[in-house]
């Protein structure tokens, strides 16, 4: 019989990139570390993120269709840990002294020093078990730096 622990352990063996999704929530900015991020289509350019349905991030993404994803560099490991916190993390507080700017198309925070920034607008929301899949059209990209990526495998950043 498949147990949640076996399922989680098996999926943890798959190396994934690490990114931070940011979205403007009224006067504040929300940010969260994600590893469930992938391209969906080249024409039109579309991506997908998977977010826990019970999370505050999912709640905000239902209200705010525009958001950004910053693909993190290996040197941004501590930043990934700060944005992985549960609850309602204020992105500006979690950034600390990390340079950032507002994306011109999404108005979401873009973290400087990452590998790429992708500004998005949600087109489809799909419930998927205890998660929600947000499929979004890409509004713009910035290829920010050529560095080693931050990855996560076996529940550790590398």
Automatic annotation (TrEMBL):
<protein>
    <submittedName>
        <fullName>Flavin reductase family protein</fullName>
    </submittedName>
</protein>
<dbReference type="Pfam" id="PF01613">
    <property type="entry name" value="Flavin_Reduct"/>
</dbReference>
<keyword id="KW-0560">Oxidoreductase</keyword>
<dbReference type="InterPro" id="IPR002563">
    <property type="entry name" value="Flavin_Rdtase-like_dom"/>
</dbReference>
<feature type="domain" description="Flavin reductase like">
    <location>
        <begin position="11"/>
        <end position="158"/>
    </location>
</feature>
<dbReference type="InterPro" id="IPR050268">
    <property type="entry name" value="NADH-dep_flavin_reductase"/>
</dbReference>
<dbReference type="InterPro" id="IPR012349">
    <property type="entry name" value="Split_barrel_FMN-bd"/>
</dbReference>
């Amino acid at each position: 019989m498949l147990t949640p622990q076996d399922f989680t352990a098996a999926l943890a063996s798959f190396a994934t990139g690490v990114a931070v999704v940011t979205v403007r929530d009224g006067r504040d900015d929300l940010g969260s570390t994600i590893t469930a991020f992938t391209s969906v289509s080249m024409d039109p350019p579309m991506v997908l993120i998977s977010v826990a349905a019970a999370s505050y991030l999912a709640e905000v993404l239902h209200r705010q269709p525009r958001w950004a994803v910053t693909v993190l560099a290996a040197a941004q490991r501590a930043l990934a840990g700060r944005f992985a916190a549960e609850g309602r993390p204020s992105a500006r507080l979690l950034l600390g002294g990390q340079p950032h700017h507002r994306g011109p198309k999404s108005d979401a925070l873009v973290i400087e020093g990452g590998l790429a920034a992708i500004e998005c607008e949600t087109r489809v929301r799909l419930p998927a078990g205890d998660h929600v899949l947000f499929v979004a059209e890409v509004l713009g990209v910035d290829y920010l730096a050529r560095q080693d990526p931050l990855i996560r495998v076996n529940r550790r950043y590398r």
